[in-house]
């Protein structure tokens, strides 16, 4: 994380951010969504601090991270950029929940009762409630993460009871599909569930879907927050991880 990004790389990130924002705006128009209704979350996992700083300098404030230790390290290292909004979007082991509860503003990947309870218990009293989305499994057996749509109501009821969590909506990571139409078809049950849910609770305003590879389908399907990594920061190099 001490690696310095060359300034031309900073310029590239700025250019990419502008391009992705324009693409989002154009899709919002194309699919007759309300202006400004889709936020851009910059997914910075595996990227060095200098990449986040470049995005910040270009005006980006919401960042998404997948790995707990990396997320917490970045949170501390960039504490001077006090208006960054940190989103945790990766799998959560229960022994790591406290670190998340103490640092993050949002968690998109809640799919177990135990994790929800721990995050609420461990949220420091001097922080506002943790904004959370329930991760829904819309790809069936291809994915192990996420609650089934048939179990969604139970999870909603549970989280609504937890004092230090604020339920904001739903998140999904669909299995890759071959066409725009197939992507929309996979999103359709989630879109319907989100519409129903947001009718019942005015705090529910977030449908976290859409990545670098399926922005048009996600925005057509009602996304209010797209999570974009590669199209902003370039390809990820996992060789140092693993
Ligand atoms: C990595 C990741 C993203 C971003 O994916 P890209 O294809 O790089 O845009 C979005 N959401 C989640 C949950 C991720 O893990």
TrEMBL record:
Keywords: Pyridoxal phosphate. Pyridoxal 5'-phosphate (PLP)-binding protein, which is involved in PLP homeostasis. GO terms for molecular function: pyridoxal phosphate binding. Residues 28-236 form the Alanine racemase N-terminal domain. Its cofactor is pyridoxal 5'-phosphate. SUPFAM superfamilies: PLP-binding barrel. It comes from the Bacteria. The keyword GTP-binding does not apply. NCBIfam families: YggS family pyridoxal phosphate-dependent enzyme. InterPro entries: Ala_racemase_N, PLP-binding_barrel, PyrdxlP_homeostasis. This is Pyridoxal phosphate homeostasis protein. The modification N6-(pyridoxal phosphate)lysine is found at residue 45. Belongs to the pyridoxal phosphate-binding protein YggS/PROSC family. It comes from Marinomonas polaris DSM 16579.
């Amino acid at each position: 994380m001490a690696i310095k990004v060359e300034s031309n790389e900073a310029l590239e990130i700025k250019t990419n951010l502008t391009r992705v924002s324009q693409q989002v705006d154009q899709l919002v128009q194309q699919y007759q969504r309300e202006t400004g209704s889709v936020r851009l979350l910059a997914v910075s996992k595996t990227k060095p601090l200098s990449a986040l700083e470049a995005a910040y300098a270009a005006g980006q404030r919401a960042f998404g991270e997948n790995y707990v230790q990396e997320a917490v390290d970045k949170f501390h290292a960039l504490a001077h950029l006090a208006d960054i909004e940190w989103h945790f979007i990766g799998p959560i082991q229960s022994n790591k929940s406290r670190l998340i509860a103490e640092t993050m503003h949002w968690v998109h990947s809640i799919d177990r009762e135990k994790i929800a309870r721990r995050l609420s218990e461990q949220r420091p009293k001097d922080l506002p409630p943790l904004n959370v989305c329930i991760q829904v499994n819309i790809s069936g057996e291809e994915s192990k993460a996420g609650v089934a749509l048939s179990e969604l109501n139970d999870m909603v009821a549970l989280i609504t009871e937890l004092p230090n969590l604020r339920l904001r909506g739903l998140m999904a990571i669909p299995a890759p599909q071959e066409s725009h139409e197939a992507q929309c078809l996979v999103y359709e049950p989630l879109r319907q569930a989100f519409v129903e849910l947001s009718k019942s609770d005015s705090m529910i305003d977030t449908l976290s879907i859409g990545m670098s590879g399926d922005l048009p389908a996600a925005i057509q399907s009602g996304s209010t927050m797209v999570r974009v990594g590669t199209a902003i920061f370039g390809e990820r190099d996992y060789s140092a991880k693993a």
